[in-house]
Amino acid sequence: MKLNEIRDNGGARKPRMRIGRGIGSGKGKTGGRGVKGQTSRTGVSINGFEGGQMPIYRRLPKRGFTNIFRREFVVVNLGRLQQAVDAGKIDPKEKVTLETLVKSGIIGNPRDGVRLLAKGELKAKLVIEVAGASQAAVDAVAKTGGQVIVIQPKAVADAAAAV
Questions:
Q1: 163 compared with 136, residue with greater pLDDT
Q2: What CATH number does the domain located at 74-162 have?
Q3: pTM
């Protein structure tokens, strides 16, 4: 068997029903829409209409809100940093910053900054500059002789500069 010989099983894909093509087709005349009324015509918008009863979306209370000031951090674990050091993507002698992480391919879109978490094991002595870090991650980096510098996240710094 070759890739160009692969086919669906017979009857696996039904051809689409062509409606409104004569009475003999089985979907002619009214085209499967029944007779008269709102739904037989075009431009129907009765989604959520419950026959005059108060719709469910109006019976249920509104709840919650979207915090427009929420910051989205990219999570980087210590184990991932160690992998990058082992692969030669990060130089342990240089400071690990947001730009370094993006350039090495550890993170893609930096969003509002990087948050360092303690999953995995770090053996290299690194100086890491991030927007946030868990206490366990800070302790683990300090144990190897490194240092974690927590800087203000990008979005907060931009907002403060605008004021």
A1: 136
A2: 3.100.10.10
A3: 0.59
